[in-house]
Known about the structure:
- The longest helix has 27 residues, at 216-242.
- The relative contact order is 0.11.
- Helix content is 55%, strand content 2%.
- The protein has eleven helices and two strands; from the N terminus they run ααββααααααααα.
- Strand 1 and strand 2 (52-54) form a beta hairpin.
- The chain is mainly α.
Amino acid sequence: KNLIKKEAPFTTRRALDTCRQIAEALNHAHQRNIIHRDIKPHNILVTTDGQIKVTDFGIARAISASSFTQAGMVIGTVQYASPEQSRGGEVGPQSDIYSLGCVLYELLTGRVPFKGDTPVAIAMQHLENEHIPVSKIRPEISLEVERIVQKAMAKDLAFRYPSALAMLRELNAAQSRSAMESELLVETDLPTQTWKSIKTKDSPPLSKNKPEKVNWWWLILGFGASFILVFISAMLILNFLNRPRP
Length: 246
């Protein structure tokens, strides 16, 4: 959370890599029937070499319902709570995925999906409102990355990622494409000219389809020479035909 306050919004590659590592931890936990229930930036540690550590596993199980009214505790939790958590319903692996979607949203935009004056107001937004699309805040974000956020934060479980592994696969694919695009941009980067300037400065002017000027003197000379050759040939033929035979 401290890094978000200081450095967000993150680059797409950094945000994807961070959430990819969180998804790996969640997949490992879910395979062992452990549901975190309180995924939020406050419970994510980052080592000096960029490794992600997910902490406080299972702590939400020890929190009573009455503690949700405590100042500071609720704000830090309800901003990332899934709709089913907000309504007090059954919590499963997909609840952790929704919370991870909220974290990815915050990494990309620098803001939480929903804000409100009270925890109840924020919880109601998770239940009823749609968050502002990532692309509205950062138009350069690809549709692929935005779709990951949308799918992770789907209010209906049927449209949400069915597992952390499913989300992890799409995070890996998006991160790979993002890395390839970055490499291509570096390879094609020119320090003094953009592609537009290259096109306008170095490219030949476009043809306007004007007809070329005809050199009439050469045309007349050509016709005259042809006429003379035909005339001489005709005279030779006539002379040959009219020549007296022995």
